Amino acid sequence: MKRLLRPLGIGHLRSVWMTMLISNLVLLLIPVSMGAFLYTKVEASLESGANRSNQAMLEQLKLSLDSKLSEVQKLAQQIIFDPKLEYLLKLDQDAGGPDRYQFIEFMRNTMSRQGSLTNFILDYYVYFRNSDLVLRPGLLTDSHKFYDMYYSYQGMSYDRWRESMLTSFHTMDYLPSATLLRTAEYDPMQSIEKTPLNVITFAQSLPGRDRRDITGTFVILIDESQIKEMFAQIESASDSSIYIVNSDGRTIMATDRQPLPGELLSRITGTGGLFNQTINGDQKMVSYTSSEKEGWKYVLVTPKSVFMQQIILIKQWALILFALCLAVGLTAAFIFAYRNYSPLRKTVNAILRGNEWSGRPQVNEYELILQSIEGSLHTEKNLRSLLAQQTPVIRSNFLLRLLRGQMDVDASREGGQSLRFMDITFVSDDFSVMVVQLDSIARFNAEPSEEQWALARFIVSNIGTDLIEYPHKAFAVELDRDRVAIVCNFAAEQAEGGERVTRELATALKGMIEERFKIDVTVAVGLPHSGAKSISESYAEAASALEFRIVKGGGTIIYFQDITDVHSHYYYPVDIEVQLINFVRSGDADHALQLLDTIYAMNFESGSITPEYGKCLFFNITSTYLKIMNATGMDQNDILGPDIDLVKDIFSYETAEGMHKRMKRLYEILAESMVADKSGHSAQLLQDMDQFVDEHFTDSNMGLGMVADHFDMTPQYVSTFYKKQSGINLSDHIAKKRIELAKRHMADKEFTNAQIAQLVGYTSDVVFIRAFKKIEGVTPGKYRELMMSCVSDETG
Known about the structure:
- There is one protein chain.
- The chain is of the alpha+beta class.
- The protein is built from 28 helices and 18 strands.
- Strands 3-2-1-7-6-5-4 form a 7-stranded antiparallel β-sheet, with helices on both faces. Strands 13, 14, 15, 16, 17 and 18 form a 6-stranded mixed β-sheet that branches. A 5-stranded antiparallel β-sheet has the order 9-8-12-11-10.
- The longest helix has 66 residues, at 15-80.
């Protein structure tokens, strides 16, 4: 239906159907739109709730950790500001017993009082640079022994530890998390095994007033596991990673081994915030807040999929419900619209089915129904007119299929009724076929064209159908550009005289066409036949008879019954072939041609050879021709020219007579070339050619073609012979003769170059100037100037 609607130009033909369907779809889209709006609101609400929850947990973490860090600062203040510490920092390594007692007293009175601190602080100690001692609660020892036996850092040497942590300047610095290896407290001498523990190191240089005057360092070791216990609740709740970053952007500790990317750190500014970030291809939600005490930033990195799980679940259910509602709604909308529109649709389809509509665009189906009667009548009228125009083509196609045996003949009353639309009515199932071959229309029109060929076929077809006697009938069909078939249908009561009627028709048809219309034809006639396959059988016989045109020649009438007694052989014995070869090689053209006439007469004039064997005979004679050239070492291009294919040239003729004439001419040329190759004859022939050129070189037609025609030879042979005998090309020889004569004429001032060109045989002065310059090296005008200047010098 869509294919029919487009050419009609009916833009709103289905307006009623579309109105019904669109109305139902609008009702369906209302709840669907509401569901989509609700989903977007739920998604935004869940994301906002997750953000608030993350921020609240970070604030709680910040408050808890800040309170713990207050203990660190309180402990540092108690130790650092003790008056005795400054005195101890000044003592050197060689201090004696009283001075060493001062260290022990400081350890008992000051360091040991801090043992009531929480587990958040793992341990603390003071390093005295001048004395290289380390003092911690319950222990006084040198730094090297302290590092080796008590506290050492994994992957860090003593020197590096001392340089980076004890002798470098630190101002309330929290160093990033590191793994501390410590010896068991109960008996450090029994085992060298050390228990690893992650710690955050707090360092404060002493006395802390001058960066250049560092006499000691106070160190507090913070147990990282205590901090991670604070993180555990947040981690388990949101599957998040927590990072603590100092004011310099260094990560103090983290629950994830993966460090924060630099581009993420650059976005962490201000006291707090929230943003989305893609890390390693995953969508993350980053929340952060800042500590006012230490300047730390607490960063919470949560996978977006964690809080999106509920959203995804809601989205899945929403899509399922949406698809279900859409499917049910579309089905219901289509069913209701279809049921309401179905009666009207059936009416419209009945009108549009198989019809074309023309006229102004319709508004709806009702107006289409009103105008359908007028449109159908108009369509029927056009179809009848079109069928009448195509009747000749349909009739020709039908007759062609009958000739090829693709259909059976139905001459009954019912069959005749079915063929009336093609203007064909058979009088019986007795038929005979004749094929008319248009050999030439040159006498009909001197300049044949496709239009003239079509007119000639029209004449043959009409005369063939008009000349048959009543009550018989004839039908004509064009087979090819130069071939027409006449199907003769004989009346049942006179079917026995079909052969006589066919012969009379063939004779009358050939005579009238050739005498009145000057069209040369060959007529081939098949036998009369009866039955379903009669037309195809008779046509096959006529086509076989037409093949004998190569034997009997054109312009004849060939009956199939006359070619049934032909023989499947030809006369060309080996001794005849040898005799022909000898005649040609000896240059005896007359006897060679007489022998070819004898061979042709014995095979073709008796009419007993088939076309196939006739072609084989000419193929063998052609083979003999090639044998002679191969045996004598002659080049075919020298004899016939480079553009002639010998086999194609012979078989381009449609009749045996034409092939025979062409073959005689080729053998004559070959025999003459044999004579020309002999020395005495060659010299005489060259002399004759030179004489002929001397007598006629001023003729504008003088050239290879004129010389070849005069001596009855091919231009290729003349060119090859002259070059071989004289050493120069014939065309160059003619040009030199003309230029020599032109130079003599140039002495006469009255002649122009154009006049001299005509006098010596050139059709135009342009060709003359080109030839003169090629031979003399200068133009005629320049040559004449030089000649005149020489004459004036001699007279002077």
